[in-house]
Every structure is written in C-alpha cells, then in structure tokens.
Design goal:
- This protein is of the alpha+beta class and about 425 residues long.
- About 65% of the residues lie in helices and about 15% in strands.
- The chain has one domain: Outer membrane efflux proteins (OEP), CATH 1.20.1600.
- It has 10 helices and 8 strands.
- About 25% of the residues are buried.
C-alpha cells in the first residue's frame, strides 16, 4: 500500500492547480463554453431586429419583367370566312417604388422596441456569462474538495492497513484479543469502502469540470487559497450588497427591460388604430411585336390613405392583450425586486456563516490531530488505550479533515455566489489590480 501512495502522490504532483491558473480556467469557460457561445449568437441575431425595424422607414424598390407569346389560328369571322393566323409577343418592364409616409408612430415604436430587445439580449448574455463563471468556480472548488477527500481517505486506508498488521503481531504476543483485531479489520474494510466512494465522486467532479470549463481536469490542488489572489469587489455590509444588487443584478435588470418592452407593445397596438399613408411610383414599358407594333410607356404616381374602421374586433383584443401583458410584466418586476433582496440577504448570510464554519473546522482539525497522535502513541506503547479508542480518534480526524476541506469549498463558493447576486462576477472585475 505504501507504493500505491507514492505512485498516487507522484501522479498528482504533475499538472498542479495553482491559484494563478484559476483565472485561466475561468477564461477557458468564458471563451469556449457552448451554452455561452450559443447566447452570443442569439445576441447577434436579435441585434438585427434594429435594422429590420429601420427598414420600414426606407423605400421599397422592385423591378418586374415579363415576356409572353400569343399565337391565334383557325380564326373565322361571323360569316364563317377564314381569317389569317396571328401571333404576337409582349415584353413588359416596370420599376415600382413604395414609400410609407405615416403609420401612427408604429414604425417609431417598433425601432424603440427593437433597441430595448437588443439591450435585453446583451444583458441576457452578461447574465449567462456570470452563470457560466459561477458554474466554473463551483466546478473548480468541487474538484479541489473531491481531490482532498480522496487523498484523506487513501491515507486513512494506509493507516488502518498498518494497524491491522500491527494488531496481528500483538495478537500473537497476547497483548490484545481477537475482538480487537476484528475491530481493526472492520475499520479497514469501512475505510476502503469510503475510499472507493471518494474515487467515484472525484471522477464525477472531473467530468463536470471538463464539461463546463472545456479543459482537461487538473490532477492536484495546492493548499493556497486562490481567492486571496483575486480582486473581489466585496461589499462592506448587507446594505452595500443590497445597493449593488439593486443596480446590477442581471435578473432584476432583465425584469425591468421586460416591463419597458411591454409598454412599447401597448403603443404599437394603439398605433394600429391610426390612419396610415403611403406613396407608390411605378414606371412601366410594354413592347408588343405583332403585325402592328405597339410600344407604350407609362408612369403612375399613387398616394394611398387607409383608415381602419373595423377588423372583427382583432385590434381591440390585441390592445387589451398587450395591456394585460404589461400588467403581468409589472407584477413580475415587483416580485423580482423582492426576490433579489431576499437572495442578496441569504447570500450575504451564507458568506458570513461559511467563513465562521471554516475557522471552526480549522480548529477542529488541529485538536483532532493532537488527540489522534496522542492516543495512537499511547496505544502503541502498550498503555491502557483500546483499539476502539484508536479507531474512533482516527475516524474523528478523518471527519474533521473532510469537514475542513468542505468548509473551504463552501466559503470559496459563497464568495462567488455573492458576487453573482450583486452582478459583479465578471472577468474584468476579477482581473482588476
């Protein structure tokens, strides 16, 4: 088993996960995550709505060309006399220009709506970026915790293997009973099962890391906390955190934009009750090739005014629908405002409590190490310590180390969750000197 541990640590010593490399992993997820790249393409597509809305203000120009051939045979007049066959070819070319003059401000409001939708898409992209960065940070610290958990369980297996070997010798000398040996063997089997479970969890964490960050998972972490090397714009208190969230929380900003878009929809529906005016200019040329050639050129200028009177109630229902949607967006906005306050308060509370838990688990590990070392030495020296006491002390030490590693993970994640709620989790903010 010693050789296994040596190989284990030798393999894990390569490709070390340094704190400075943390940003590299975040950048990889930022540039290569497919969900984020899909949202970027969605933003580009929605931006084109602005140009589509603007096109309503420009003239529409079309060119039409046609050619037809006509042949008449077996013709007779009313008296039954035969008439000569005829044939003709007609060629038509025309240019038509349509220009909308007035649409009841429908075009104007459509452009404003398209700009708001573009802003919303940009904000949605920022929101997804922060979600991916948060997922990346969680995947990073999950992997860190799972690696430590695996190492702790592996070391525990080695300790119990050595204890079983030692207890077998002591049983032969009559220093302990068969029951004591059975307790040691049972503990070895239990620690081996925990190590297998830890390895399985580590494989899952690696897979999740590679799925989100799009890079091979590292094989080791160092003890240094990478958070200390980052520029995290943390609030000084809960009120400061609430202020940040009110200004920058992506979900809240999206809800506000949804409400503004719903107001534009109401104005667009109202504009459909207004008259509309347009102008059309057409220039055409007809060429007919027959026994008598007939060429004509024609220019037409037409102004059209449409006054909507009744469309089966469709306009009225569409306007009512847009007003209901507007009220729905307003109610959703109020709910998101309250939800953001609650989420910020919870994130701030989690951040503070996780820091306290981390300090407590560090003290727990120190105490458990001292107790386990002392009990083991007393047991090996033939003192009154029992096998059960040694097993319990080692189990407590293992639990303390795992709890501390998990507390480190939870504290780190709470930092990034708080930044995400505040709308401050961006690569630009993390890279600030």
């Amino acid at each position: 088993m010693k050789y296994i541990i040596i190989i284990f640590f030798f393999v894990f010593s390569s490709n070390v996960l340094y704190a400075a490399e943390f940003l590299i992993y975040l950048e990889s997820a930022h540039n290569n995550n497919p969900v984020l790249n899909a949202e970027r393409e969605n933003y580009k597509a929605i931006k084109e709505n602005i140009n589509i809305s603007r096109s309503e203000f420009f003239p529409s120009i079309s060119i039409l060309g046609s050619q037809s051939s006509k042949q008449s045979s077996n013709r007779t007049n009313q008296l039954g006399a035969t008439l000569p066959d005829t044939n003709s070819e007609t060629t038509t070319q025309s240019v038509s220009v349509d220009q909308k003059i007035f649409q009841g401000f429908q075009g104007y409001n459509s452009i404003k709506k398209s700009k708001l939708e573009s802003d919303r898409a940009a904000l949605k992209l920022i929101s997804v970026e922060q979600q991916i960065l948060l997922q990346s940070a969680v995947a990073y610290y999950d992997l860190s915790y799972k690696i430590k958990n695996t190492k702790f369980n592996l070391a525990n297996v080695d300790l119990f293997e050595r204890q079983v070997e030692s207890d077998r010798l002591r049983l032969q000398k009559g220093e302990i009973t068969l029951t004591d040996l059975a307790q040691s063997e049972s503990s070895l089997a239990g620690s081996s099962a925990k190590f297998i479970a830890a390895e399985t969890e580590l494989l899952t964490a690696k897979s999740n890391f590679e799925r989100i960050i799009r890079l091979p998972a590292p094989k080791e972490v160092i003890k240094e906390n990478s958070i200390k090397n980052l520029s995290l714009n943390f609030p000084t208190g809960l009120n400061s955190a609430l202020s940040f969230s009110k200004k920058n929380n992506p979900k809240l900003l999206l809800a506000r934009l949804d409400y503004e878009i719903s107001k534009k929809n109401v104005k667009i529906e109202k504009s459909k009750f207004s008259p509309s005016a347009s102008v059309n200019y057409t220039q055409s040329q007809n060429n007919s090739f027959s026994s008598t050639v007939d060429d004509t050129e024609q220019e037409t200028l037409k102004a059209t005014v449409i006054i909507p009177l009744f469309k089966g109630g469709k306009n009225h229902s569409s306007l009512k629908k847009s007003k209901f949607k507007k009220e729905q967006s307003n109610l959703m906005l109020q709910d998101v405002i309250n939800e953001t306050k609650t989420d910020t308060a919870n994130a701030w509370s989690t951040y503070q409590s996780s820091e306290s838990v981390l300090k407590a688990t560090k003290a727990q590990v120190k105490a458990a190490e001292i107790a386990s070392e002392g009990i083991t030495l007393e047991y090996d020296s033939g003192n009154t310590r029992t096998t059960l006491e040694v097993i319990q002390s080692r189990s407590l030490l293992l639990d303390a180390r795992i709890s501390n590693a998990k507390a480190e993970r939870n504290f780190a994640v709470s930092n990034f969750e708080l930044l995400s709620i505040m709308g401050e989790l961006t690569l630009r903010n993390l890279k600030k000197p």
